[in-house]
């Protein structure tokens, strides 16, 4: 799965010289992150969610994946997102004029009502997200080097840590969810 600066989102398969499908053509805003959900039947690029019966069509199949939902996550910038649990819930990281920088979206309701909760954790915007499913924690990094831990069960911020002096660019959670590691631009 590839996302480009020209806004295109394309899927390739090992052993094929050409793309097997194009979810979004060029001419859109740049793609900041692409991910598959855990079940492998949804693909999102930060602003769009795609759902189709099979993401991996055979070479003879000409079915174009159906666009499932679209919404503007953040009105200034969208930087990252993660699928939460069943993948009908998505968390996004970015910056909005009202300082919402971590948002939870429910994809099973209409796009106008899909914003479940918004958090104001990073005053200059959130840059990256990680999800710890066993503990139901969302971990976000911000532009000013802070890391925020959010308890999704209670929908509240648990901790705000000054982890770096420059923007947090990466977060990884170990498989046992005992530790998480952050990386920055410094």
From TrEMBL:
The keyword Cell wall biogenesis/degradation does not apply. One of its GO terms (cellular component) is RAVE complex. Keywords: WD repeat. Coiled coil: none annotated. GO terms for biological process: vacuolar acidification. WD repeats lie at residues 161-186. InterPro entries: DmX-like/RAVE_component (IPR052208), WD40/YVTN_repeat-like_dom_sf (IPR015943), WD40_repeat_dom_sf (IPR036322), WD40_rpt (IPR001680). This is DMXL1 protein. The lineage of its organism: Eukaryota, Metazoa, Chordata, Craniata, Vertebrata. The gene is Dmxl1.
């Amino acid at each position: 799965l590839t996302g480009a600066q020209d806004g295109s989102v394309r899927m390739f398969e090992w052993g094929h010289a050409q793309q097997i499908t194009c979810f979004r053509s060029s001419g859109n805003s740049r793609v900041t992150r692409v991910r598959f959900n855990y079940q492998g039947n949804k693909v999102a690029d930060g602003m769009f969610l795609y759902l189709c019966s099979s993401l991996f069509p055979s070479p003879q199949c000409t079915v174009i994946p159906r666009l499932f939902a679209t919404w503007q996550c953040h009105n200034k910038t969208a930087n990252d997102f993660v699928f939460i649990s069943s993948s009908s819930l998505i968390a996004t990281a970015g910056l909005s004029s009202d300082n919402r920088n971590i948002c939870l979206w429910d994809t099973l309701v209409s796009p106008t009502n899909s914003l479940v909760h918004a958090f104001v954790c990073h005053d200059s915007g959130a840059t990256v997200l990680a999800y710890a499913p066993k503990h139901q924690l969302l971990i976000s990094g911000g532009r000013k080097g802070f890391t925020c831990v959010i308890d999704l069960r209670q929908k509240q911020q648990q901790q705000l840590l000054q982890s770096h002096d420059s923007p947090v660019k990466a977060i990884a959670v170990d498989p046992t969810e005992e530790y998480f590691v952050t990386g920055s631009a410094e």
